[in-house]
Write a structure and sequence with these properties.
The chain is about 45% helix and about 15% strand. It is of the alpha/beta class. The chain contains 15 helices and 11 strands. The chain has a domain of about 150 residues: Rossmann fold (3-Layer(aba) Sandwich). The chain binds NADPH dihydro-nicotinamide-adenine-dinucleotide phosphate, 1-deoxy-D-xylulose-5-phosphate (DXP) and manganese (II) ion (MN).
Length: about 400
């Protein structure tokens, strides 16, 4: 690895983006911020521009460029402001960039992340939805363009750390691996009586017991759709079959995931629940750098517990596993339906239990045509969203 690395952060104003800048700020000799992007939080983006002085910053549209210019005034410095999808694609594929942090939430992250892939960058992948939407196509592009894909999602980064360094994609036999153990906390409703699920508020659903994250992933954690998306993400990142991935509920989020080997050994990655650890690991890989996360205090770890997820409580997890077995069209459909349903829940249009109803019904109504190119994936995503909106209209 040649320092300094020029870094592009897609989704800089979000939870992962902010943690990434925190790690980078600890290592000014190693990382330079080349480009940042934000969507609605322009004041926060302006503050980041003043602090990190990137070459480029990308916002939603021309009106946002104008507003950001006004906020920045003379402190705009050398930063050029771009906008729209094309602006994101331009910064993700710029020749000066070594490494792209993919931290936009949802389907909006797909095209800029793919632009980084086809430009052969090192990609730090937090945006799991991109991989859920485009699985095989995404991995084929990584291989074709010799991009380097490093998982940032805490579970997948943990598995990446627990696999042998010479692990060959999809070849569990050669490495003596039995299966992957994907841990999930069970979220804020792990013990809530089932009858109360349809009455929970967005604030309650967003109150994750262990992690501080953006709204969408927090709701997904509460329904365990997050673990369903992560199941599909693990399949594509490591080349495993559905039968080789087991989801384990671990409420403390101290073990971030594990690899079970055929000789009975289990290798786990542990740490305090703070995304700066996987982010620092990805930024410096294969080296290690200080992240700002303190050491685990084992004397205070009174209890590490584990259990099996329940289908009645977390139907979204099982829907996602089923979709994974069905194939690409099903996982693209599920991702789109879930984004629409979570948004509707946040707006008070559907209740928490109806997120699963919308996901299930959209999967039943949508076709399962084969999706072999990016245009067909984008089209399928769009038509699934239309179906999900129709289903919501009929529900309310
Ligand atoms: N937070 C976490 O700890 C973890 C997150 N992840 C994954 O990382 C990704 C980001 O999550 P998180 O940081 O929590 O999310 P946040 O909601 O906190 O941040 C999302 C970022 O994306 C920007 N954004 C939102 N919508 C769009 C859009 N349509 N076009 C362009 N930019 C957009 C936001 O801009 P703005 O805020 O300015 O509106 C913000 O910068 C998700 O895919 C999530 O699943 C994975 C593991 C852990
Ligand atoms: C930090 C991270 O990676 C999240 O995806 C986290 O795992 C969410 O917690 P759950 O395990 O409750 O989904
Ligand atoms: Mn995760």
């Amino acid at each position: 690895m040649q320092y300094p690395q020029q870094i592009c952060i897609l989704g800089a104003t979000g939870s992962i983006g902010t943690s990434t800048l925190d790690v980078i700020s600890r290592h000014p000799d190693k990382f330079k911020v080349f480009a940042l992007s934000g969507m609605n939080q322009l004041t926060k983006l302006a503050e980041q521009i003043r602090t990190f002085v990137p070459n480029y910053a990308v916002v939603k549209d021309a009106a946002a460029v104008k507003e950001l210019k006004q906020i920045l005034g003379a402190s705009i410095g050398k930063t050029t402001l771009l906008h729209s999808k094309q602006g994101l694609i331009d910064i993700a594929s710029a020749s000066e960039v070594d490494c792209v942090m993919s931290a936009i939430v949802g389907a909006a992250g797909l095209l800029p992340t793919l632009a980084a892939v086809t430009s052969g960058k090192r990609i730090l992948l937090a945006n799991k939805e991109a991989l859920v939407m485009s699985g095989e196509l995404f991995i084929n592009a990584v291989n074709k363009h010799k991009a380097q894909l490093i998982p940032i999602d805490s579970e997948h980064n943990a598995i990446f750390q627990c696999l042998p360094s010479d692990f060959i994609y999809g070849d569990k036999q050669a490495s003596g691996i039995s299966h992957l153990l994907l841990t999930g906390s069970g979220g804020p409703f792990r013990e809530l009586p089932l009858a109360q699920f349809s009455h929970v508020t967005p604030a309650q659903a967003c109150a994750h017991p262990n992690w501080s994250m953006g709204q969408k992933i927090s709701i997904d954690s509460a329904s365990m759709m997050n673990k369903g998306l992560e199941f599909i993400e693990a399949k594509w990142l490591f080349g495993f079959n559905e039968d080789d991935i087991e989801v384990v509920i671990h409420p403390q989020s101290t073990i971030h995931s594990m690899v079970q080997y055929v000789d009975g050994s289990v290798i786990a990655q542990m740490g305090n629940p703070d995304m700066r650890t996987p982010i620092a690991h990805g930024l410096a890989y294969p080296n290690r750098i200080e992240s700002g996360v303190g050491p685990l205090n084992f004397a205070q770890l009174s209890n590490l517990s584990f259990s099996t997820p329940c289908k009645k409580r977390f139907p979204n997890l099982f829907l996602a596993i089923q979709a994974s077995k069905s194939g690409q069209a099903a996982t693209t459909t599920l991702n789109a339906a879930n984004e629409v349903a979570v948004d509707a829940f946040l707006q008070g249009k559907v209740n928490f239990s109806q997120i699963n109803t919308v996901n299930d019904m959209t999967l039943q109504k949508q076709n399962t045509s084969s999706l072999t190119c990016i245009d067909s994936i984008i089209e399928h995503d769009a038509s699934s969203r239309i179906l999900a909106h129709q289903i919501i209209k009929e529900l309310v």
